[in-house]
From TrEMBL:
Organism this protein belongs to: Tieghemostelium lacteum
Membrane topology: Multi-pass membrane protein
Family the UniProt entry places it in: Belongs to the peroxisomal membrane protein PXMP2/4 family.
Name the UniProt record assigns to this protein: Protein ARV
TM ranges: 72-91, 126-151, 163-184, 190-210, 317-338, 380-399
InterPro entries associated with the record: Arv1, Mpv17_PMP22
Function, in words: Regulates also the sphingolipid metabolism. Mediator of sterol homeostasis involved in sterol uptake, trafficking and distribution into membranes.
Length: 406
């Protein structure tokens, strides 16, 4: 609990007397001699007043919602914040998609299916715009976190990054007004005005969080304008690489994802010092396996050449799971045995581990590959598989570390 006027911590914001639940409360005064005001006046206010003050950029409203509305947490972000964030991103990308359709007279047959993909970036697809918006938000938050770390690590012993992210999400509430654009036919310039509003709210929230000057807060928020450009640039650059050097690009991408995924699994989930030998093995495996997947998809294309279009994804998925899944798992265990310098242990390892591994992988890969073969443009199918593998690997680590704890 904090005093929303000065930001100092207080023991409580009100005291209840009489029977509990009787509603007899007395608001606590802040005991900071320079403040002495009521610590949190919003306790007695209607939510609509809090919201109005949020709208009017009052720092007190931000402090109230961030610090006094819910129990303090050392780690992580409450699920409500995540849900709200997903809704914002959904609105925002939907508006972008509508705008693209109107401005460029693009009329995709569907927002998701990909029939006519050649070799350009699928800018006009809803799912692509949505993912871009997710990436933009991620880069926005990461760049603010990085700046905070660079500038404030000497001043504060601990920086609560979860509260920083929460304050950014909370102050983006202006994006909720985008729903008005979807319901009524607002001009697209309304979006620009909202963006400015959200930016200035972000500014206040960061200012509250860091107790910093407006100028520094402006510097932090300024990174946003650039991040949107960067994501598009990265996409263009990546698609160009993918076209000119497909195998190398896929190998490097997969190696990078394996590297990051393995470090997250070890440091973030298993919570131990990093075993770099294991990281190296997984990274090398990532760079070997992706080219194999690349060629396998080419083989699949040839094999299913005469299959009617509507069955194609199904047939591809079934062959993939019955032929390639065992193959790639055997290759993986062989690689690990050789990398460990114990090539003789391959057969024993396969005897014990192959079937359980395959059973586990069949829980997720058939669906993932069906989606992959149906909705994802061919050039991005290996990448999609990498991302599923990345998430699946992290999920498996969470599972096994829970087992160890129990
Ligand atoms: Zn105070």
């Amino acid at each position: 609990m904090i005093c929303i006027e000065c930001g100092r911590s207080v023991n409580d914001v009100y005291k209840e007397f009489g029977k509990s639940g009787s509603g007899n409360i007395r608001l606590t005064r802040c005991n900071n001699p320079n403040c002495l005001q009521i610590a949190d006046k919003y306790v007695e206010y209607d939510f609509i007043i809090v919201f109005l003050d949020l709208f009017l950029h009052k720092p007190q409203a931000y402090r109230h919602l961030l610090f006094n509305r819910q129990p303090y947490r050392d780690f992580g972000i409450p699920i409500q914040y995540i849900k709200v964030l997903v809704v914002y991103i959904f609105f925002e990308s939907y508006i972008k998609w509508l705008r693209l359709k109107e401005n460029f007279d693009v009329h995709p047959k569907s927002a998701f299916l990909y029939y006519d993909w050649q070799d350009d970036v699928p800018y006009d697809r809803y799912w692509f715009i949505f993912l871009t918006a997710v990436a933009e938000f991620g880069i926005y938050v990461l760049s603010i976190m990085l700046l905070v770390r660079l500038i404030y690590s000497s001043r504060y012993a601990i920086i609560k990054y979860n509260y920083l992210v929460m304050s950014i999400i909370l102050s983006s509430f202006g994006k909720g007004f985008l729903i008005l654009m979807i319901i009524w036919d607002y001009p697209f310039s309304f979006n620009e005005i909202l963006n400015l509003f959200v930016l200035s709210s972000n500014l206040i929230a960061i200012k509250v969080f860091l107790e910093t000057t407006t100028f520094k807060a402006i510097c932090f928020v300024n990174t946003m304008g650039k991040s949107s450009l960067t994501v598009t640039d990265i996409q263009r650059w990546y698609m160009a690489r993918l076209k000119s050097k497909p195998i190398l690009t896929k190998a490097v991408t997969s190696a990078a994802l394996s590297l990051i995924g393995n470090i997250i699994a070890q440091k973030g989930i298993e919570r131990r010092s990093i075993d770099w030998n294991r990281v190296l093995k997984f990274t090398v495996w990532g760079s070997i396996s992706s080219p194999m997947v690349h060629f396998w998809h080419k083989i699949l294309d040839v094999v299913t050449k005469n299959v009617p279009e509507k069955y194609k994804s199904w047939v591809k998925m079934i062959i993939d799971q019955l032929v390639f899944a065992p193959f790639i798992n055997i290759a993986f265990y062989s690689f690990l045995a050789i990398a460990d310098g114990k090539p003789n242990s391959i057969l024993i390892k396969l005897y014990f581990d192959l079937i359980p591994t395959l059973k586990a992988s069949w829980k997720v890969w058939p669906l993932a590959q069906y989606i992959n073969f149906t909705f994802i443009p061919p050039q991005l199918q290996v990448l999609f598989g990498n991302i599923v593998g990345f998430l699946w690997g992290i999920y498996l680590t969470v599972l096994s570390s829970k087992k160890i704890k129990n």
